[in-house]
Amino acid sequence: MAGAGKLFCFGCGYSARVFARRLASSGFAVAGTCRTEEGAERLKAAGIEPFLFAEGKPLDDPDGALQGTTHLLVSIPPEEAAGDPVLAAHRGVLASLAPEIRWAAYLSTTGVYGDRKGEWVTEETPLDPNAARSDRRASAERAWQALARESGLPLHIFRLAGIYGPGRNQLKGVLDGTAKRIVKAGQIFSRIHVEDIANVLEASMARPRPGAIYNVCDDEPAPATDVVAYAAELLGRTPPPEIPFEEAALSPMARSFYMASRRVSNALIHGELGVALAYPTYREGLKALLKAP
Q1: To the nearest whole number, what is the mean pLDDT of the chain?
Q2: Band of the pLDDT at 12, cuts 50, 70, 90?
Q3: What pLDDT is recorded for position 71?
Q4: DSSP string for 155-169
Q5: Considering the domain boundaries, does residue 272 fall inside one?
Q6: Is beta strand 103-109 parallel, antiparallel or unpaired with respect to 71-74?
Q7: Which pLDDT does position 253 carry in this prediction?
Q8: What is the CATH number of the domain that holds 54?
Q9: Residue 150 forms part of a structural domain
Q10: Distances in whole angstroms, Cα of residue 264 to Cα of each of 85, 101, 268, 269, 292
Q11: Which of 43, 87, 247, 291 is the S-S candidate for 50 at Cβ 3.0 to 4.6 Å?
Q12: What is the C-alpha to C-alpha distance for residues 134 and 112, in angstroms, rounded to an integer?
């Protein structure tokens, strides 16, 4: 990749690792945080220089860890009491480094739009989070935007839909018997393959527009029941029975997902960033995962 530099990831989870590995293979130096020594070993094996950052404790040497950073990715969720842990621990350091950073990304969620009764939302739709964790995300977005205004950090916000990919998909649920077809009238979800998250981030790096906000989702919002049924069809199995939402045994978090219904527009990533999704719908994504769910 032309103009390679150093990517620092606050949080090297499922999505960030895919993106980080791509940049490492294209000549970037890549560093990132994890919570445990075991996690540090996994990052080393992936070619990512690890730094421990957990429970609000700042990096041991933030200036040294972040030295030379040209690209910044933040994927750590905000905490209930302390808010955004990265800003709480390292706001000053990041403000001082802002002039050297060419691109910064904060990974948020489409949950900040709240319940829209199945209607379409765009990046211009006012936020209306209806769950505590989504409200924390909206607050974190505002906090990062404030830092960007004050310091010149070239911030881009990416609102991610439901993430799936290798090891995390409905094929696995059908195979291990945990998939459920929960029926709630009018319920619509948007989703995105983890590789397409990396595609969008790379496209933004190539065409930075500080202050931009992008919805990151595929082309076809659909009921979760349809996705489970299609996964079963691909596997040649009988789909699990439909369960009315009112009768489903769900955790409070799982139940909260069903309390909001919206169709998320991805027109901006197509039109502005020129993104051609590798998996434009769940069908292409699940087919590609058949050999190794």
Answers
A1: 95
A2: very high
A3: 98
A4: EEEEEE-EEEBTTBS
A5: yes
A6: parallel
A7: 83
A8: 3.40.50.720
A9: yes
A10: 28, 30, 11, 12, 28
A11: 43
A12: 5
Q: For residue 91, what are the domain limits? A: 6-164+191-218+265-277
Angle formed at CA 99 by CA 97 and CA 101, multiple of 5 degrees: 70
Distance of CA 246 to CAs 26, 60, 239, 242, 269, Å?
Answer: 49, 49, 20, 12, 36
Q: Write out the two tokens for 279.
A: 């998996």
- Domain assignment of residue 159, yes or no: yes
For residue 138, the one-letter residue type is A
Give the pLDDT band of residue 3 (cuts 50, 70, 90): low
Assess if residue 245 is contained within a domain: no
Tokens coding 63:
């200036």
pLDDT tens-digit series, residues 34-67 = 999 999 999 999 999 999 998 778 999 999 999 9
Identify each DSSP E strand in the chain by its residue range: 6-10, 29-34, 49-52, 71-74, 103-109, 120-121, 155-160, 162-164, 181-183, 191-193, 213-216, 242-244, 263-264
